[in-house]
């Protein structure tokens, strides 16, 4: 069973949190995100899931104030992937990269005080393995044959004299 918190968006643009039975603001939704609380936002007019639109609205507000996370060049590069053959691959690559970054940030925070050198060594090894796998997946999805599992030192049936 899905344990996501349900938030309803009414035609008057107000957001209603069904768990706490009160109206909330985008700042409250941002606090849910920061707290790692799973939620979904539904438009009451047509019962469609508008969670992504709300998250994008929060990102737009964050980008408008203070130091932006995305440069204009980075945003342009992301836009170029829309509609292309690698759109899905890029989305999985970017999501995987962010997951790796978040896990390592958490691990670093938890173990830094105990053994900083061991922590950095372990994280570097994990980075090499994880990024290698992400790159291999990206290249496979882009159509490049990586010869996975084939020992290049031994001739195959495809090799000729």
TrEMBL record:
Residues 6-65 form the PHA accumulation regulator DNA-binding N-terminal domain. One of its GO terms (biological process) is regulation of DNA-templated transcription. InterPro entries: PHA_DNA-bd_N (IPR012909), PHA_reg_PhaR (IPR010134), PHB_accumulat (IPR007897). Residues 70-107 form the PHB accumulation regulatory domain. NCBIfam families: PHA_reg_PhaR. This is Polyhydroxyalkanoate synthesis repressor PhaR.
């Amino acid at each position: 069973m899905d344990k996501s918190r349900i938030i309803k968006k009414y035609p008057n643009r107000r957001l209603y949190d069904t768990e706490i039975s009160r109206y909330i603001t985008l700042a409250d939704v941002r606090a849910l995100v920061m707290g790692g609380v799973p939620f979904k936002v539904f438009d009451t007019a047509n019962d469609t899931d508008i969670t992504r639109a709300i998250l994008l609205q929060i990102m737009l507000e964050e980008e408008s104030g203070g130091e932006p996370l995305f440069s204009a060049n980075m945003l342009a590069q992301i836009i170029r992937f829309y509609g292309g053959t690698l759109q899905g691959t890029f989305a999985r690559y970017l999501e995987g990269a962010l997951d790796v970054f978040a896990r390592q940030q958490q691990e670093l925070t938890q173990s830094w005080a105990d053994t900083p050198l061991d922590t950095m060594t372990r994280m570097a090894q994990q980075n090499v393995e994880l990024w290698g796998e992400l790159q291999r997946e990206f290249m496979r999805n882009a159509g490049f044959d990586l010869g996975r599992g084939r020992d290049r030192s031994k001739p195959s049936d495809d090799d000729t004299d």
